[in-house]
Structure formats: C-alpha cells, structure tokens
Write the structure tokens for this entry.
Amino acid sequence: MKIPEKLLQSYINRRIEELDQIESALHNKEYDLLFKIGHQLKGNGAMYGFPEISSFGELVETGATQHDINAIQLQFSSYRNFITKLSN
Amino acid sequence: MLLDQLNCAYYPSFNPLLYPFSGNLNKENFVKRILIIDDDKEISELLKSKLLEDRRIKVFTAEDPFEAMEILNHQVVDAIILDWILPEMTGAETLSKTEQVFKTDPNLPYEWEDKKVKVIVLSGRERTECKASSTKHFRYSGFVSKKSGNLQNMIENILKHIHKIEI
C-alpha cells in the first residue's frame, strides 16, 4: 500500500530530528523517554515501510525496560546512519 | 414535521438530515464519523490519510484521553479506533471516564442519547490483553493488531469493521 510522499517525507524528517533526542536520553539515562520513543518506533516503523526502524524501536524499548544503555548504544550508530541515508 | 416524516420513512431513531452523505440516499452512502485515539501521531496521521481516501468517511484524531473526551463531548461519532495504552490511562479507562462525563453534562448533543459507537481496538499487544466491557454508548467490537506492521492488512481490517456500521 502506497504511503503519500508528503507523509513519508514528514516521517523521515521527524526521525532525523529525533536522533539528538535519543542521544541526549542515552547520555542522561532517561529510561522513561527511551521507552516511549522505542515503543512508538516499534509500532510505526514497519507501517511506514521501515522494519529496520521497528527493530531498533524494539531494542530501545527492551533496553530501557532493563536499564541497559549499552545495548542501545551499540546499535545507535547504525540506526543513525540508516536514518541519515534515508534523508538523502 | 418533515423531520418526523423522514424519520418514519427511514428508521425510528435515524434522522438522515443529521448525516452528510456522499451520493444518493442509500444509507451505505452516508458519511461515517470516525475518531482515532492514539498517542502516536505517526500512526494516527497515516490511518487518517488512508481512511479519507474513502469519501464515505470523516476522521477526527485525538492524541490523549483528555483531547478525546473533549471531542466526544461536542461531536458524535459512529466508530472509534482506540489505542489500548494511552498517556495517563488506558483506552478502556478513557471511554469509561467519557461515560461518566456524559452523565453529568447538560449540554451533551442530544444525538448521544441512543447512540451506540463501535470501538475497534488497535494495539501492539495481544488481543487477550485488550479486553474491556462494553458500556452504554461504547461497544467493543473488533481488534486490529499493529504487530505485523502490514499497513494494507490493517486498513482493510479497519474498513471491514467500519463498513458494517449501521447508521
């Protein structure tokens, strides 16, 4: 099912804006915020055609629940690269 | 007078003048009013854009329980697509609280009096985790999973429920 281009572009732009927020939350160990972000990415990523975003979201949600910042940090660079490539 | 005649001609509790319609006076062409209650704007915007491709659907959205209650206090709807987990309370608690507000609001639109709204739960949780009792105005009638991430399936399932609504 085709997603309107405008909506898709807005979605990608918001993911780019969110990167700094995730980085800051990781730095400050804001587990509640990480859980919320992860939970939403898990739910909406695949819907927009990006199962990679859903997978990362699930990892963030689990990492936040278990207070395991390292698990998230390990995947965050790959996620950042993925989102940056999408925007180009 | 004309209203009464129309009511008798169609359904006892149905007033076609209250419903915008998209074609001839066949009830299937009447526009159905849907409220999406989901705190994930990405999902509600996407669902809204897809549902609006059907001219027979009008969509409202709410990101949190209080916004949802505010909308329902002023706008009658025919169906609700309800995220199970919302900020501050669950989707079920939101509708429960709305019922309480309805009981005490003297300015509630009169159309709410006999209205039964179909509630379709949309969640990443399992169906068994998302159960609630129906109330006077809100009847739980469907569950659509967010888990698969398959947008087409999700929209088709939602539309199946919506098009079964009788006005």
In short: The beta strands of chain B are 32-37, 57-62, 79-83, 117-123, 138-145. Confidence is low (pLDDT under 50) at residues 1-14 of chain B. Residues 20 and 30 of chain B are 6 Å apart (CA to CA). Chain B has one domain: 30-162.
